[in-house]
Amino acid sequence: MYKIGHIAKQLNVSTDTLRYYERQGLLQASVRSPAGYRLYDDSALEQMRFIVRAKAVGFSLKDIQELLTIKIDKHNHSCEEVKSLTLQKLTQTRQRIEELLKFERSLSVLAERCCGGEESADDCSILTALEDVDGSA
Amino acid sequence: MYKIGHIAKQLNVSTDTLRYYERQGLLQASVRSPAGYRLYDDSALEQMRFIVRAKAVGFSLKDIQELLTIKIDKHNHSCEEVKSLTLQKLTQTRQRIEELLKFERSLSVLAERCCGGEESADDCSILTALEDVDGSA
DNA sequence: CTTGACCTTGAACTCAACTCTAAGGTTTAT
DNA sequence: ATAAACCTTAGAGTTGAGTTCAAGGTCAAG
Lengths: 137, 137
Fold this sequence. Notes:
Chains A, B: This is Zn(2+)-responsive transcriptional regulator. Chain A is built from six helices and three strands; from the N terminus they run βααββαααα.
């Protein structure tokens, strides 16, 4: 049985994060020591690894709650549910990437056109582009 | 002179947003009517357009504050300052895109491998991938 | 003169995922 | 026996960009 600090070090998260996940219903300590310390067993460690991995591929804590619900009772859930969650997250991620790519292109154009010199910003092409109605950036 | 609702409709933002920007020091109403209503003139409208455009290329409100400070007194600021803000935002944006692309690739792989069928999730490849130490996704 | 569409304020609330604080109890090593 | 390094709790704070609420004042039309 491991104390919270041990789990935290193993998985490179803070003890606060572990307590926070507990409050969020993601990971309960297996038992408490007589003094009230959280004690985790190997299966709790594995569950925390699952959470960390799911985060690493972009799932939110809310998504992870759903994944855990399924994982804990796989037999009464379908592959389709899991795939659906994954595809939904994929779509969201792609939409966000598209948005950021638009930002990236606009910012690139702005930066390229600007001399970036020490002289005054009176004729700065970036400011001008943001002022003018002609939003060609 | 325009009332807040007029500006809001013109620029497709809420009146709450305009009041919020005022609190943040981004855009003051030009004057107040005898009844205390905010009244904006054309230059305030132009400034709000600037803010909206700057947001549209990915600047945060904090960034926009800095841009406005420069814009209001261009003569005492350099092109370099503006370009620096832009490049900084560009770097941030690219970093975030990289992170999301990693998510995207992982999620794609997970989704591709999963049958997504109606059958139970007992052998779901997505769950298995997130459980196993072998993080090949 | 009243109805409806405006406008005002301050303050609290939202979301996500933590992080920090205060005030204390426990364990381990010396 | 005492100091260092753990652990506990409830609750507040953080970031960013707003949104919502309550309680009220104003303005134009009919």
